[in-house]
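Notebook, bench 3.
Goal today: get a predicted structure for LLM class flavin-dependent oxidoreductase from Ameyamaea chiangmaiensis so we can plan the truncation constructs. The sequence was checked against the plasmid map this morning, with no discrepancies at the termini. Length recorded as 387 residues. Pasting the sequence as submitted so the record is complete.
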Amino acid sequence: MTQDERQQFGVPSDGGGKDFGVFLPVANGGWILSDTTPPLHGSYAQNRAITLQAEALGLDFAMSMAKFRGYGGRTQHWDTSLDSLVLMSALAAQTRRIQLWTTFHTLLHNPAVAAKMMATLDQVSDGRAGINVVPGAYRDEFAQMGAWPETIGHDARYDLATEWVTAVRSLWGRDAVDFKGQYVTLNDCRSSPRPSRRPFIVAAGMSERGMRFSVEQTDALFIGGRDLAETVAISARARALARAAGRRLRLYAMLTLVIDDSDAAATARLSRFQAGFDREAFAGLMRSYGVLDAETGQENALTDRARSGFMTPVAAGHPQTVTRRIIEMIEAAQLDGIMLVFADYQDGLARFASSVLPALRSRWGGAPALDRTGDAMESLSYRNGVA
C-alpha cells in the first residue's frame, strides 16, 4: 500500500464508505440555465448558509469552483461569481467538521503562491482543506485578462499542471525546493508553514491525458457521461489506468436532485424549470466551449446535457425514487461519492438529509449530523440573497 493510499482525508471513503458533498453555487444561477428556478445570487450570504446547513445535516464536503466569465443571456448566467479560495477560507473559520475543497487554475496561480495559500487554509480549517486542480479553461475566460497561452495546447496544459502539482507537493514536504521544468521553475524556494496533512487533491479531466494526470497526481477524479452507460465506461477506463499505475483513485460524479412528495410533483417542477430555459445563456455556454470542442472534435457531455437546461445528470422524484437512482449510479459506476446540486438548496438539502441520506448511510456508513441545525437555520435568509 502506497503512502497516498494510507492517507486519511476525513471522509467516509477513507474506510470504504461513500462521500456525499455539495457543489456550492458560487456563481449566480447555479447549475440550471433557467429563469424559473429559485434565485441563486452567487452571494456570500447564500453560500455561508448552505455550507452551515450541509455540515449540520451531516454532509461530508463542500466544493467551490473558480469562474471568471459567465454565459450572459437574460439570466446573466454565471456573470457574478465569488473567489473560490477567499470564500472557502471564510467558511473554514465558521465550520468544524465538513471538508472544504477550493479550486485553483494552474494557468493563473504560481505554484509557490498556491502552496502557501493552501497551507494557510489548512490552518484556518484545522486540516479540512482540499484542492480542485483545473489544468484547462475556456479561451475567452482567460484571454480577457491576458492569461491565455496561445502556444500551449490541451495535452500540454496537463504537462504544465503535472509540474505545478509536483512543485506544490514538494513545497508542502521539503524545507527548500529546486525544480526546473518546461513550465515551472523554483530556485531554492521556501514555503512555511506546511499543511498539517497533505490536502486532498481532485480534478475533473476525462480525456485520456486528463485521466492520466489524475491517476498520477490526484486523489480523486470527477467523471460524468451523457448517460449512465457512458459514465460506467468512463469509470472502468479510469479504474483500469489507476490499477496499471498501482494507485488508488477515488471517483465522484455530480448529480442534481429534485426531491418532492411524489414522482409526479418532482416531474412538474422539472418541467417548470425547463420552461424557463435561457437559450441565450446556453448559446454563451456553447460559445465558451467553441460549440464543438476543437481539441476533441466532438461536443462534450456537459454541453450535450445543457440543451435540457441542466448542466449535470438529474435524479428527480419521491425520496425512494431518488434513493434508488443514487444507489444505482454509485454501484453501476463504482463511485466513491456524489457531489450534489440543487435548484433550491435549502429545501433540497433538508429533504435529502431527512429522507434519502439515512438509507445511503445505512448502506455504506458515514458521519452523523452535527447538532448545530439551529446555527444553520438562523442564517437561512439566503432565499432572498441577504445576510
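The CA atoms of residues 93 and 124 lie 6 Å apart. The chain is about 40% helix and 15% strand.
Flagging this for group meeting.
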